[in-house]
Amino acid sequence: MKIFTAQQIREADAYTIQHLPISSLDLMERAAGACTSWICKYFAPETPVYIYCGMGNNGGDGLAITRLLRNRDYNAHAFVLHHSEKATADHVANREALLQKYPHALHDLPNTTSIPALPADVLIIDAILGTGLSRPVEGWLAGIIQQLQTLHATHTIISIDLPSGMQADSSSVNTPVVKAHHTLSFECYKLAFLFPENAGITGEVHILPIGLHPDYIQQTPTPFQISEESLIKSIYKPRSPFAHKGTYGHALLIAGSEGKMGAAILSAQSCLRAGVGLLTCHVPKCGYTIIQIAVPPAMCIVDDQYDHSSGFQTDVSKYKVIGIGPGIGTAAGTAWAMERLFEQYRQPMVLDADALNILATTPGLIDKVPAGSLLTPHPKEFERLFGKTANNREQLQVLSHNAIEKRLCILLKGRYTAMAFPDGNIFFNTTGNPGMATGGSGDVLTGILTALLAQGYSSKDAMLMGVYMHGMAGDYAAETLSQEAMTANDIIDYLGKSFLRLHR
Ligand SMILES: NC(=O)C1=CN([C@@H]2O[C@H](COP(=O)(O)OP(=O)(O)OC[C@H]3O[C@@H](n4cnc5c(N)ncnc54)[C@H](O)[C@@H]3O)[C@@H](O)[C@H]2O)[C@@H](O)CC1
Ligand SMILES: [K+]
């Protein structure tokens, strides 16, 4: 699913109006109808509904929703906030339609500094500002938004299209934005919904289709996309009946150190579960027996130190892919060994955890990472690698810039893990849940990505598919065991069920 900017959404509306064709008023009626149906599904007609409307088309939606709710016998009231001199044509048309049918449902709040006190059981609908926001909200309207923020604690708030005051494509940090429990957004995700800094602002996001013209959606390029199951199914390659273990690649996993052999085990087990043909683990000598017992299908070679500081003494050229990082530590010798590794091995590899920390602290080392490699930092590792950023929009720019410039596939872990590619595209993953915020979860991802590269998936496809499958396995684990009780081992256990889903 593509993510469009506010400007592109306006173009999509205009294209739909011209080519469907449909009048803009009818398109607004559709949008309001979709919101009304959603509200009626979850709230009983006895619920008093107060709808705060702005002067633009977002307010127009609010006025139309008021009328449509009244048609269904809801006790709905529209309160119009006069923040602009002039209302849009569709706002005016919906105002007149409401006045004509339900004159007592319309209330004007001109130049108000606060909204009147509300009964306790009121459902609040925020239809003040949508994609037409052109600057941060100030003055008395900012005061109203702050008042609505306070009401979040006592009342359910639903924002129409996006929480009022939120910029659709850029950061809204330190600006007044309504805090919603639900956001009913038209047709597609807005980029800002995917920023971690907005997590507490949108509440649950529900995308309501309003029939924007498919030609515009198909033809219009955008770097931002949501990675969906249909995309992953198109990437997935079923196994050939003539396959043998050599078909699916021999991977080398460089992982573990004294006290951190669990990371190596988790990566190795997930690599095997994700379909690698053959797996060799390179571990320090203290880990030899541990790996041989815990992961019988894997072969094992050892470093004669307790970390990896004597180097990776093996002919690395024979491996289809190398995954490096989980639990390796950051000893100076390990950094030295990594540098030698990049000289000897020029195929895409997977770098995670301590491998990323070594990249962050060794000047120039990141420029030696083979093109097409997969880097999987969490926000702290990302900051160590690429520096602090002022907000999530800037962070996304830094992410994409580095992916393009260094020809790497770099992700940034989060609720919607962002994945940036050398071609300039950025995808957001939607699978996964907070139960995956548990030790070892990242090691499991490293194993999956390594396995997918070994099987011949391109770097981009391996990242899209691996992150999606990792999240899906986590979702299955949480469904059965709860987010609290699930562990990284459970993510591995549910990989099988996740692959079966791709077969359908
Ligand atoms: N045909 C369409 O274009 C459709 C539009 N829809 C709705 O229309 C919305 C976009 O409508 P508009 O483009 O009219 O924009 P908005 O309704 O979001 O806001 C525009 C109004 O707000 C004012 N404004 C902007 N920034 C402000 C600020 N910081 N402080 C105070 N006032 C400010 C503008 O001067 C203008 O009066 C969407 O979010 C969606 O809700 C839907 O009805 C679907 C169809
Ligand atoms: K809104």
What does this 3D model show about the protein?
The model has no long low-confidence stretch (mean pLDDT 95). Helix 2 packs across helix 3, helix 9 packs across helix 15 and helix 16 crosses helix 18. The chain folds into two domains: 217 residues, YjeF N-terminal domain (Rossmann fold, 3-Layer(aba) Sandwich), CATH 3.40.50; 261 residues, UDP-N-acetylmuramoyl-L-alanine:D-glutamate ligase (3-Layer(aba) Sandwich). The longest helix has 23 residues. It is built from 18 helices and 17 strands. The chain has 504 residues and is an alpha/beta fold. The strands form two sheets. The chain has a ten-stranded mixed sheet with strand order 8-17-16-15-14-13-12-9-10-11. The structure holds ligand NAX and potassium ion. One of its GO terms (molecular function) is NAD(P)HX epimerase activity.
What does this entry show, briefly?
With 504 residues, the chain is an alpha/beta fold. The chain has helices spanning 6-19, 24-42, 57-71, 89-101, 139-151, 199-202, 214-219, 229-235, 261-273, 288-294, 332-344, 354-361, 379-386, 392-406, 441-454, 459-481, 488-493, 495-503; strands at 49-53, 76-81, 106-109, 123-127, 157-160, 182-186, 204-208, 224-227, 250-254, 278-284, 299-303, 321-324, 350-351, 374-375, 409-412, 418-420, 426-429. The structure holds ligand NAX and potassium ion.
